[in-house]
């Protein structure tokens, strides 16, 4: 990452995005020292222009931003920080500085898909997912069928914990099946998008 701090008198914009939801949380400024402290501490740190000093988000409120990754933009004059927020991000108590709700966890599906793909391409004897791929497409498809039956059974009862557990099992094995077939979830989403557009 090659960042040019000289372009704006030593400060560059730092956009913070929730690593799970993908929601943009806030924007601050970093100098070289703030960037290094962020990397070293694992907590997102800015240079506060009003306080004229380094400021670790959450140092007063306890609502820290735990660092996941940092990337510079194509011109080297801004930073994208992906983080896990520990509490509301805005000083107003809102989830984001744009007063948006940040509760969705569906972004984790993309992380899970990447893990599943890695288990397929870099199998390990200790990985359950890799063992499914090793058994072949019939076994993977069978597991999806088994999990589908189990969620139907749980749907007839009124146990939220068991139902959600079976729903998670079904979703996971469905993602494994897509990977085993060589298809992307985005392709499934495109089918849904096209169906929706025809009905609109």
TrEMBL record:
It is found in: Cytoplasm. Keywords: Amino-acid biosynthesis, ATP-binding, Cytoplasm, Histidine biosynthesis, Hydrolase, Multifunctional enzyme, Nucleotide-binding. InterPro entries: His_synth_HisIE, HisE, PRib-ATP_PPHydrolase-like, PRib_AMP_CycHydrolase_dom, PRib_AMP_CycHydrolase_sf. Residues 109-200 are annotated as: Phosphoribosyl-ATP pyrophosphohydrolase. Residues 1-108 are annotated as: Phosphoribosyl-AMP cyclohydrolase. In the N-terminal section; belongs to the PRA-CH family. This is Histidine biosynthesis bifunctional protein HisIE. It comes from Algoriphagus marincola. The lineage of its organism: Bacteria, Pseudomonadati, Bacteroidota, Cytophagia, Cytophagales.
